[in-house]
Write a structure and sequence with these properties.
The protein is α+β, with helices and mostly antiparallel strands and 362 residues long. The protein has one domain: Creatine Kinase, Chain A, domain 2 (2-Layer Sandwich). 49% of the residues lie in helices and 13% in strands. The strands form three sheets. Strands 1, 2, 3, 4, 5, 8 and 9 form a seven-stranded antiparallel sheet that branches. It has a two-stranded antiparallel ribbon with strand order 6-7. α9 crosses α12.
């Protein structure tokens, strides 16, 4: 059974005003003092962010338990310093992001300028184990058209600098400012994948392999493929849904590769359009169908996504979890819909943030 791990980036906010707080360094120091053996939390690009990574898990129940525990621990460490955490992929309130003080982040600020200074966005990255780089690249090639629906499901960033962006996942649009971000062409082999990465690093436009921000890539640290298209999800159960679908997609793609089935030959241009449509509409409009690249209602696309991975989900015992999770999001809304509903009800972005703090730890 393939293992799955999740990395979540959380926003540090004032519990009263909802404003982002640049306190990641003292929060991390406190976490290290209180639990030096765990090393769960990590620093991120901006001081208003805190990241954690789960252990590889085989069961979605165990993954859910660990995500909830990590969120609770993050909140506990933050509350000792007068802030808390919110699973929001962008700050609804205006913010002046503070770039972290280390050589890597300072290089990024010098190299990319305003794109680095404004890049306060928070994602959910899912790692799924693979047997080899050959299998991993075969999976990368075959996952390409199925990634946009994951963005739509996870969409949790409708607001930007105090205004409605008009997008469900504006995080994903801001993320595209990085020169190495986005969908990729078909590689065909691990050798071609690694050659392409090496060529990109050799340009000097990116610092190293870790700065290759493909929508899905081989991990440089673990024997996994890493899916990077999801917003950090407001609710832990949605993060688990994304993780279950990610594992189902990886297993399905690996089976297709072993059976000699070629990947869909969609152009990068069409894949960019599919990603844009998912970011814009979320679950409230049409998505581009992964097989035809033609618009269909989100509900129909999600049904076909689940059908596409149903055999793999059933093998992992995740089919009902995924069906129920998709139905719940279609019924109750993703994070973007919840945030907009909160603003409509309260009229205050501050109240949106403070309410989302409660959602984060549910």
């Amino acid at each position: 059974m393939r293992t799955v791990g999740v990395e979540e980036e959380l926003l540090l906010v004032d519990p009263e005003t909802g404003e982002p707080r640049a306190l990641s360094a003292p929060v991390l120091a406190r976490a290290t003092r209180e639990d030096a053996d765990q090393q769960v939390f990590e620093k991120e690009l901006h001081e208003q962010m805190l990241e954690f990574a789960t252990h590889p898990q085989s069961s979605m129940e165990s993954l859910h338990t660990e995500i909830v525990r990590c969120r609770e621990e993050a909140a506990g460490h933050a509350e000792g310093l007068g802030c808390t955490v919110a699973a929001l992929a962008t700050s609804p309130l205006p913010v002046s992001p503070a770039v972290g003080v280390n050589r890597r982040y300072q290089w990024m600020e010098e190299q990319y300028g305003i794109a680095t200074r404004e890049q306060l966005v928070l994602g959910c990255h899912v790692h799924v184990s693979v047997e080899s780089d050959d299998e991993g690249v075969a999976v990368v090639d075959r996952l390409r058209p199925w990634l946009a629906p994951l963005t739509a499901l996870s969409a949790n960033s409708p607001f930007w600098q105090g205004t409605d962006s008009g997008y469900s996942s504006y995080r994903s649009r801001v993320w595209q400012r990085w020169p190495s971000a986005g969908p990729t062409e078909i590689f065909g082999s691990a050798e071609r994948y690694h050659r392409r990465v090496a060529d990109m690093v050799a340009t000097g436009a990116v610092l190293d392999k870790a700065m290759i921000y493909f929508d899905v890539r081989l991990s440089d640290r673990y024997p996994t493929v890493e899916l990077r298209v999801a917003d950090v999800c407001l609710h832990a159960e949605t993060a688990v849904l994304i993780a279950a679908l990610a594992r189902g997609l990886v297993e399905t793609a690996a089976r297709e590769w072993r059976a000699g089935q070629e990947p869909a030959d969609h152009s990068v241009s069409l894949l960019r359009l599919a990603a844009w449509q998912a970011a814009r509409a979320g679950l409230t409009g049409d998505l581009l169908h992964p097989e035809t690249m033609l618009p269909l209602p989100a509900k129909a696309v999600l049904e076909d996504l689940v059908e596409h991975v149903a055999e793999a989900l059933r093998a992992h015992g995740d089919l009902e979890l995924v069906r129920e999770g998709c139905a719940r999001l279609l019924r109750e809304g993703n994070g973007a819909q919840v945030q907009r509903g909160l603003l409509e009800r309260t009229g205050s972005l501050r109240d949106v943030v403070t309410e989302c703090v409660r959602h984060t730890q549910r």
